[in-house]
């Protein structure tokens, strides 16, 4: 926990990552990735085995297909990229990514999702102060997650994986998605704050020149978040709502 936290209402806007920041969907993603890659690695006899650290290093915060390619490359495995329309059974980057997404969608449908209470306290404070807010997510499931969590109407701007693919925006850790979300809100990144739990997301916001980058430590580690570019690190956004 960081002492003497800055007042986020003093910034022109606050841009939030979704999974792991607003909702605990990062845990659902982690389980879906682990299940899918454990099966794939066993079938293809890929070593070393998939570990939780792989999620944080190669998958967390990135667009789905970029994450697949990055992780396979870490094991010196190359497969054709394929097309987003590839079936789950296809042994392509897109097919493997779609296979993982099927696990995720099933879990979301069966179990639902609720936002972090501490994050909602901060959102309420920002809305009461009139501070513009947005969601910046690499996930193509962002709209559905926000809807299931019952918070879609709180955000006038949602920059997600669908828009990023449509507009050919580079995946985090490149700054593109954060910078574009700021443009959509009509604010200057240098006068705005970004909130992230993923190393690639922190790097993205820092590269985009945001005036404040907040790291939320949901397991990746405070030191690593600071090294990636976070100005302050908390383990719960309720700290900003006190």
What's this entry about, in short?
Helices cover 46% and strands 9% of the residues.
Let me know the largest β-sheet.
6 strands, parallel
- Please provide the ordered H/E string of secondary-structure elements: EHHHHHEHEHHEHEHE
Number of helices: 10
Beta-strand share of residues: 5-15%
Distance between the termini: 13 Å
**Overall strand count:** 6
Mean pLDDT: 94
What number of domains?
A: 2
Describe this structure in words.
There is one protein chain. With 242 residues, the chain is of the alpha/beta class. It folds into 2 domains: 8-24 and 113-240, HAD superfamily/HAD-like (Rossmann fold, 3-Layer(aba) Sandwich), CATH 3.40.50.1000; 27-111, DNA polymerase, domain 1, CATH 1.10.150. 46% of the residues lie in helices and 9% in strands. The chain has helices at 25-44, 52-59, 64-74, 93-111, 117-129, 142-149, 161-166, 176-185, 199-207, 222-228; strands spanning 14-16, 133-136, 157-159, 193-196, 212-216, 232-234. A 6-stranded parallel beta sheet has the order 3-2-1-4-5-6. Helix 1 crosses helix 4 (93-111) and helix 2 (52-59) crosses helix 3 (64-74).
């Amino acid at each position: 926990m960081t002492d003497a936290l800055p007042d986020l209402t003093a910034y022109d806007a606050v841009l939030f990552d979704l999974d792991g920041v607003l909702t605990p969907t990062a845990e659902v993603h982690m389980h879906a990735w682990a299940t899918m890659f454990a099966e794939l690695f066993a079938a293809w006899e890929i070593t070393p085995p998939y570990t939780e650290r792989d999620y944080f290093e190669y998958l967390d915060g990135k667009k789905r297909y970029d994450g697949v390619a990055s992780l396979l490359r870490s094991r010196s495995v190359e497969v054709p990229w394929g097309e987003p329309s590839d079936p789950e059974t296809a042994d392509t980057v897109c097919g493997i990514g779609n296979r993982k997404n099927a696990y995720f969608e099933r879990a979301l449908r069966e179990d639902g999702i609720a936002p972090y209470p501490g994050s909602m306290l901060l959102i309420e404070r920002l809305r009461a102060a009139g501070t513009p807010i947005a969601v910046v997510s690499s996930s193509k499931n962002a709209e559905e997650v926000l809807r299931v969590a019952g918070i879609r109407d709180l955000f006038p701007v949602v920059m997600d994986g669908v828009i990023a693919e449509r507009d050919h925006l580079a995946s985090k850790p490149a700054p593109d998605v954060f910078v574009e979300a700021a443009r959509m809100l009509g604010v200057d990144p240098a006068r705005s704050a970004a909130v992230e739990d993923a190393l690639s997301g922190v790097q993205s916001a820092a590269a985009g020149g945001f005036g404040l980058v907040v790291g939320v430590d949901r397991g990746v580690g405070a030191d690593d978040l600071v090294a990636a570019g976070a100005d302050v690190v908390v383990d719960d956004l309720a700290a900003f709502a006190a």
